[in-house]
Amino acid sequence: MEATNPLGDVEITDPQAMRALAHPVRLAILDILRRNGPATATQLAPEVGATPTVTSWHLRHLAGFGLVRDAEPGPDRRQRRWEVVGRGFRFSAPIDDEAGAAAARALGREMFLRYADLPHHWVTEVEPQLEPQWRRLGGLANTRVHLTAEELQNIENAIEQVLAPYVTRDADDRPEQSRPVRLMRYTLPEAHSE
């Protein structure tokens, strides 16, 4: 798999890869590697709630689908270090493949469950500690709009074009006063209404 979009995300189209990724430990591994950089199974294990052996098995499984790979060796060259492939990942349900659609639903469900508490954690733990200018910029919007599928795709493409230069810039090019910001975008088409 390779990154073929403006944000540098890995495009997941294989239903087997979607099913493999629909596991809390695997999603946790990807999150931690994306946030902290390369690590060994032993370093990841306590953070993902698994033994080093189980974590190693999950890493090899993710590598089999091209989502992680070997990183440059660390100080102890005997330990295998892993890194993520791409800046993130994306997937979509195939239109005419029920097994693929079921795999996409399973992965989507697992991701919604994994990140459901993130806004609550931000409101209770992070936001009170922020400086006023950062506190003012945080939060959410809840906008309901009537769109065609093509219009929604155009909006998603435009958002990615705006984000791409910030997502893909090298760490050395980040302004000194920058900090990590998580942008969560839920695009939730509703049932057809009259």
Please tag this protein with its features.
194 residues; mainly alpha; Arc Repressor Mutant, subunit A; 2 domains; 3-stranded antiparallel β-sheet; two-stranded parallel ribbon; 8 helices; 48% helix; globular
Q: Beta-sheet strand percentage?
A: 5-15%
Portion of residues in helices? Answer: 40-55%
Write down the CATH class of the largest domain: Mainly Alpha
Radius of gyration, taken over Cα atoms and rounded to an integer in Å: 18 Å
Low-confidence stretches: none
Mean pLDDT: 90
Distance from first to last alpha carbon: 41 Å
- The total domain count is 2
Task: Give an overview in words.
This protein has eight helices and five strands. The protein is mostly helical and 194 residues long. The mean pLDDT is 90.
